[in-house]
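Pasting two entries for a bug report.
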Amino acid sequence: MSNKLSGNILWESSRMMLPEHKEAINRFNQSLQIRKRAQLDEQEQELINRALQQSLRHRIALTIHMYDPYEQLSIIGVVDRIDKQLQRFMVDGEWFCLAEVVRVEFE
């Protein structure tokens, strides 16, 4: 026969959770999963810019890794346009921010 007084009595004996507690636990778990933004130096930024330019000129497919706080985002395709004034680029008809690029790889 198991002893009910062993372990954490408060949590083991309660079978009910308030919605506020569930939300707080979910927020806490999400805060643990937030990824930090990588700080790129000038050389890495220059390599990214060159790779995007080469893809635009020579129609070379790239894998572009983007920053997102919760998941890993990758864009695979050929750069269609680059807008230096607004710091963005277009792949497959969709605009992306240059500041969000973390790494670029050639296919």
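Entry 2 (this is the one that rendered wrong in the viewer):
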Amino acid sequence: MNKTLIVYYSLFQNTKNLALEISEQTGGTIREIIPDKNYSFDYNTAAKEVRNQISRGFCPKLIAGSEPIDDYQTIFIGTPNWFKTLAPPVMSFLRQHDFTGKTVIPFCTHGGGGFCQIENDIARECSKSIILPGIAVNGTAQSEEVRKWLETIGYKL
């Protein structure tokens, strides 16, 4: 059984594309996080919804992606950078699982903001795990960029 899991939430497919690239290079199992209520595809409306959820600490119910993680030792966790933190569906995933003793590797996509608080937020929620340095990609990741990052963090199949 493959012991690596790549979990992600993606609204506009950038984070999904990065997750697929990580999966291709690691051979890991991929799992999409899907909330019970979709965000608006209109950027301004979605931004208002998300800002409100983040300010309230809201964690939406998930209809996919929350399956058990017990069989995995290494878990890549991907999110878009939304208002300097992770997407609320990713926070739901983090709060539904015990990451004790697991290796957690964050990744995000952004439009210029980098990780901001994402790595810190994941580290806080996964305080009993080993956190490796993540990758923050502006737009679409190139396979060479992902390969170099995996080498840098010492990831081995």
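Dev reply: Rendering is fixed now. As a check, the viewer should reflect this: Residues 43-56 form the longest helix (14 residues).
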